[in-house]
Amino acid sequence: MVGDTGYVVLRGRVICPDKALEDGYVAFEDGIIQSVGKSSELGRWPAAEYIDFSRPGYTIFPGFIDIHIHGAGYYQAAHGQVAKLARFLARFGVTGFLPTLASATRQEYLEWLHEVKAAMAQVAQVGQVGRDSAGRGRDGRGAEGARILGAHMEGPFINRLSRGGMMEERVREPDLEECEEYVDAAGGAIRLMTLSPELPGAIDLIRYLRSRGIVVSMGHSLAGPEVVAAAVGAGASHCCHIFNNCPYDNLRKEPGVRRPGIDEAALVNPGVTVEAIADGIHVDPLMLELALRSKGLSGMVLITDALPGAGLDDGIYEMPDGRVIKTRKGDGIRLKDTGALVGSGLTLPLAMRNFMQWMGLRDWEAAQLVSGNPARVLGEADSGFIEPGKRADFAVLDKDFNCVMTIVGGEIVYERG
Q: How would you classify residue 213: left for phi > 0, otherwise alpha for psi between -120 and 50, otherwise beta?
């Protein structure tokens, strides 16, 4: 139980922005980090409660943020399941996420935006750390899970020729009036929209979205460097799942000659961050190394692009648009009837572990790609790093990258039994 001072101290190996403290601590109060340092400095910080993770293989990471996820476990990022998804994701160290919807009708997007807005209000009611004998928070409420940071609309303004796993009848050209309806319905909940910048009206739409504070992601696109440059000039700043945006037959200029597409243009544009699915199925690790060498640690974000079934055993599940999918360990998530790849079964700890192994990164470096960088993409200045003044959002992992504890805003929302 938290004592009168309200201070909580986590002890153990702590991931800082530019290093790992092997014998460190992080102290927080009222959901805000107050101090980070070596355990030998603890004497000057009054603490009512200590949580000790100073055991072999345990590491205290900044909480993970997933800006592109369609579902996980038994839950979709839609259809009344967003709040349940938030609780499930806490099992994997996720402290914030953007529920993502693609391949939807106009009415479905509107209903979903109302759902996300309501779920944000529900899950936002997370208090301080500390539990009574019933496992409730200090204020008597049970922990709610990862924060819902807003909505990611992957569509509907997508080029049908590069729609990927989306249903053709549910993608369309940009319509400013339709977009305004979404923005008004969301009441500030839309944080990210993915669109194809080469479509008629897309550049004007990008300007409108930026005027409303919405981050614009370019994706599912046949755009070349000139269009990407125009989109960035209008305010686009992010690129959806790198190397999974364009049918590569469209990049053939003539026999034996390949032209650059959206992915290449995004990699060389310093004003664009790129996101990647690090499951080894969607993108070969060599291509991810190319992206990392182009963008550097600060220019990449790891996402899951996960669907229902992620984090569970192999099985048959349903996408938010009603299509049936199957999961299998070591593979992506595929449509049951055609076998087409439509998403991943990743969790963010697994994505980070994969990236560390493939790229030879240290854990404090890889943590930027699942914590600090996604926070920066969204403008979440108070999140993403373990340093004084930031939110007390933490993911504690063991040596096998399994989550031991997740803390959101200073409250324990998951603890492994």
A: left
Residue with tokens 């996604």: 374
Separation CA 109–CA 156 (nearest Å): 9
What's the per-residue H, E or C state across 307-337? CCCCCCCCEEEECCCCCEEEECCCCCEEECC
- Residue 1 maps to a domain: no
Q: How far is CA 261 from CA 46, 166, 232, 267, 416, in A?
A: 56, 20, 15, 10, 45
Write out the residue range of the structural domain in which residue 304 sits: 65-381
pTM assigned to the model: 0.93
Q: What is the CATH number of the domain that holds 236?
A: 3.20.20.140
Q: What are the tens digits of pLDDT across the range 104-157?
A: 999 999 999 999 999 998 765 544 444 433 333 333 334 589 999 999 999 999
259 falls within a domain? yes
Q: Could you check whether the bond before residue 349 is cis, i.e. omega within 30 degrees of 0?
A: no
Tokens encoding 76 = 């979709």
- Count of CB atoms within 10 A of residue 364's CB? 20
What are 334-378's pLDDT values in tens digits? 999 999 898 899 999 999 999 999 999 999 999 999 999 999 999
**Cβ within 8 Å of residue 226, ≥6 positions away:** none
